[in-house]
Amino acid sequence: MDSCDFYKTMKKAIIAAIAVEKLIKFSKEIDDISKGIEEIEKSFKITTSKKAWGKNFKFF
Question: Long-range contact list for 19-22, CB < 8 A, 24+ apart?
Fold first, then answer.
């Protein structure tokens, strides 16, 4: 293995490591967003009841 092959291999390894790091950060951000959505859903269900909207109200 000459120095050029070693350089290319190291460059690919560094790029792969950076990609894995970005995927981990992205995964954590998705988890944070999903937790936020769950909190919003919980608060929405608590503050709105069927009695407050009436029997004929439909969300969708």
Answer: none
